[in-house]
Amino acid sequence: MAEPFPTFPDGFLWGVASAAYQVEGAVDEDGRGRSVWDTFCAEPGRVLDGATGAVAADHYHRYREDVALLRDLGVGAYRFSIAWPRVVPAGSGAVNPAGLDFYDRLVDELCAAGIAPAATLFHWDTPQALEDAGGWLSRGTAQRFGEYAAVVGERLGDRVRMWMPLNEPVVVTMFGYALGHHAPGRALGFQALPAAHHQLLGHGLAVQALRAAGCTGIGIASNHGPVWPASGSEDDESAAETYSALVNWLFADPVLRGEYPAPELTALIPGPVAADLATIAQPLDWFGVNYYRPTRVGAAGGGGERDVEGAMLPPGLPFEPRRITEYPLTDFGWPIVPEGLAETVRMFRERYGDALPPLYITESGCSFHDPDPVDGRVPDQARIDYHDAHLRALHRAITEGADVRGYFAWAATDNFEWAAGYRERFGLVHVDYETQRRTPKDSYHWYRSIIQR
């Protein structure tokens, strides 16, 4: 018999999450500008089955129905993202009133349902006009991002409880600019590092703009996970440290320490780095961790993987990923390692100590190829098991002293899963993409029971 589900601290925030391009659709409506993902999806061979986010889960038109599902779920917060090209179609200059009006209505609907709005300002959908001018390789994009943040903060700051300027800058840097597997599809290798720096600079400028607009509850949603050496050899341990510096500390140290994790990285960063770091390290009210899995890494030349989620690694790297074979996999092929979430929380506590603000798990979830609904039911016990095990691991970290104040399940509904199209399903609610019918899965009902406790 399973151990009783643990009791989380009073005030622990239960939420779910989504992202604009993955759910909204309506890409050509009401003055929205073109994004890099619109362009990327239109290029043959970029996305599985030629899928696009043109309709997705049609959240733009069905947000009231979706908020009603969230209300019945009982969540305390809904994490959504605001589409930069819907609000500022060219990325700078004229503001689109219809775009702001949509998010105004969504926020009001959430507040009326007793759900705290938690807004992400950038979940990967850079306006194409800015990409044409250099995108995140250009310092100007960071400046434009701060201006956009000011516009949104002025309009929604009186009601949004939590703010995340950035979502997973590591993914934009690695998959969008270094490997080319995501929009904007550039394959620059280590020449992508300016994209990391300019996103972080944009984050700092956005925090300043939000504060100036009177906003509170400001953090970030950053992807992190343990990096395990393939063996105890010095070469493998060194490779794992290098990889962790690139995927973890390159994106956390500037925000939490005001520095890059290694002088070799600092030397590759353009611009007035010291002044930029002072801007990047704006004090935060909390820090958000998106956790999905650990990574195993060995020294180059050890017969490891050259393919990471469909993206081929360039030659000459000082490390290579190795498969994690001792854990079960999601249908996306990701290892299911609940203790990795607790390990991630511990490594943040150890690295930053008293400088670490309160943590939220701003994403955790899994894709399983769920069956179609039958008699209004979608059985997805594997997803229940995933969240159950990860929450238990998180609770253990909290009992050890970690200040973790909330958990956002990814995702609220099934959605467009970037380069994987619509094959992968992460949602607690099943979406029939032909009819847009929503069907709560068994995991939805389980999560509701957990929240009610």
Provide an overview of this structure.
The protein has 453 residues and is an alpha/beta fold. It has a single domain, classed as TIM Barrel (Alpha-Beta Barrel). Helices cover 40% and strands 15% of the residues. Strands 4-3-2-1-13-12-7-5 form an eight-stranded parallel sheet. Strand 14 and strand 15 form a beta hairpin. Helix 3 packs parallel to helix 5 and helix 13 runs parallel beside helix 14. It starts with 12 loop residues before the first strand and ends with a helix. This is Beta-glucosidase. One of its GO terms (cellular component) is cytosol. Belongs to the glycosyl hydrolase 1 family. GO terms for molecular function: beta-glucosidase activity. It catalyses: Hydrolysis of terminal, non-reducing beta-D-glucosyl residues with release of beta-D-glucose.
Provide a compact summary of the structure.
One of its GO terms (cellular component) is cytosol. 40% of the residues lie in helices and 15% in strands. By secondary structure, it is of the alpha/beta class.
